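Page header: ASSEMBLY MODEL / two components / 579 residues total.
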Amino acid sequence: MNWPVITPLVIFLLVIFAVGFWSHKFVFKTHSFLEEYFLGERQMGGFILAMTMVATYGSASSFIGGPGVAYTQGLGWVLLAMAQLATGYFTLMVLGKKFAIVARQYKAITLIDFLKERYQSKTVVLLSAASIVIFLFSSMTAQWIGGARLVESLTGLPYTTALLIFAFSVLIFVIVGGFRAVALTDAVQGVVMFMGTLILLVATIKAGGGIPKIIHDLAAENPNLISPFGAERTLTPAYVSSYWILVGIGVVGLPQITVRAMSYKNSKAMHSAIIIGTIVVGFIMLGMHLIGVFARPVLPGVKIGDTVMPLLSMKVLPPFAAGIVLAAPMAAIMSTVDALLILVSSALVKDVYLNYIKPTAGDSHVKKISFSVTAIIGLIVIILALSPPNLIIWLNLFSFGGLESVFIWPVIFGLYWMKGNKYGAIASMVLGMSSYILFDRFYPNALGVHTVVLPILISMLGFVVVSLLTQQRNGLEKTYQRI
Amino acid sequence: MKKPFNSKDKRFKVAHREALIGVVLVIINFIWWYGFAYGLGSDKVENYTYIWGLPAWFFYSCIAGFIVMIVIVSLTVKFLFTDVPFEDEEEGHEHK
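Prediction written out in full:
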């Protein structure tokens, strides 16, 4: 066991626990359990809001996978990663005040609450809940596996033990503390992610002998590494630009992000979150991917991309500092998993159970159900992560784009286009999901752009056309509008 | 029909304007990013110029672009965004 590296990780975990238990106080005191447990009573300030957005969004791929690809592709991949800068301001500005106000008028606690009130349709609710549960379940499992692998590689513990340590630490603070614990720990984790990026970036530049020398070394090895086109010149402008949809503006449609856009206290919080969020997300994405590229001359010949970041930290940093830096991906994974966990739990408890199975449930019953559903989901995920079935891995591959194609238009048109109706929403969700799966299977990266682009266009068309058609029908023959 | 929220609410005018600003910012961001990256970066690598040791296309597109966006976003929020209350003063309540 490598104690100097592990000590900062343990301290980090203890801080996270402390925050989780502190939040539990609020869960007990609150007069509105559901709003507290699933939304932190809409009390998030600017800093917390910015951090919870960034941390939820930044996941294993920002700290492990992304830098690994940047290592192979060079600066072209950093360029691609910078499409994510938009998430810092775009989501909050576009959902913005309208979403915050409308969600309060609807008394919505989850994204699905909003869709339910807006479209008044059981089909919309069930479709949304199903997509959230299916896709987020699988991406949660994948993140969980990533976290366990990381603990395994850092501590030398066997995979199963590592998984259990990782899983139980997340489960405990989420179950006891709810959304508030998730958001507060996200703030701590966001700070750790930011610091980790900064320390590692400086250390890597130093180890490589300064930026000019690193760039010179890269160009000497393969000039394409410092071009925007990738090592094999395969990154076309159209393909790279299409990431602005997948990881830039499409993020508006991710339920784990949208739910945060209704959790803040007032418009001041939103304003400062926009600025802080832009700075932090930009810095982390730029920094981590640049680290991946700069690692190449420092640490040549790494075969598995995912190991670049841990190996580099161990090589260029003293052990204690490496521990702090490696807490960053851990923080990134935990902060994504915890958000997904509470979201899946809210979809099941609030959106399905309370809406359709037992609307009359009393407060203490709801409490019991919420705690136990969250715990059970966690346990199922652990079991799945122990020996992940292929289906999970397959689903995870398109959970990001899939969720975006399902939710983006029902949310955006729901807010800004009064003519949009439930038929349009249903059409857009079904078309978005099915065309995404079909394109992914049979014609990935159609027309040279990322697979997500066409389904998003198709689901937009579906929404608009069906909404307009059914409006006419509603007017002409009122009797037919029932479904 | 659908449950309409009170679309005459004055706060929504502010909200709509700010959402539009978000769209404009993303377009500016994209043009800056694309223009410098492929405008300067499409040249042969031997002809690249360097700033702070980084290829000029990368410096302008990603580093300067990041800083420019922080400045624009901060100025926009400071001068164009308006504080509005989120809680209703009774008028917007159609249910419960």
